[in-house]
């Protein structure tokens, strides 16, 4: 892989990926981290790739603007928790406190990102364990364990031995979205596939799952814009 820069204001870094299987140029913008990747046939001259990028520049800049810039988490930043935007403010005492429109974080400013991330992970575990327990009880099938990760390729998973994994960033989304993902993964305890039978189980556990799935498709990438470290 290589990298070129599309000039402009601002300049756009583009990862070049040459592929023996590629028959044409294809451009991809990751909604997760904002990375721009141009896949191109192995022997295509780089000047043709740059020409292709210039043709797509308006499209690319429009989508980058719609995605929004990354947000460094710290005092003064605005962070969504359970779908509600909240201002990070200095706090008193020892515990992070969730208010209606603010999150109060005690301690030194340089420790705020780590403290908020740890607090979010704890909150996410509480919410996801409650939802998973509730859906598993309704299904009549227990899960074996629950783990949290900061995954970029999926919001959750269920293994053949009943282990559930979730992205802790789901706690940033509206509660109904988190609940849908829990119902989705618990449904795999009965149907380890995405067949019609599987979606019938999801609907029985959760109800109409389409709005929540659409939210994740349209808005979920934005949950990865929040950076807790360099």
UniProtKB/TrEMBL annotation:
Residues 26-218 form the YgjP-like metallopeptidase domain. It comes from the Bacteria. InterPro entries: UTP_pyrophosphatase-like, YgjP-like_metallopeptidase. PANTHER family: UNCHARACTERIZED PROTEIN YGJP, UTP PYROPHOSPHATASE. This is YgjP-like metallopeptidase domain-containing protein. It comes from Salipiger profundus.
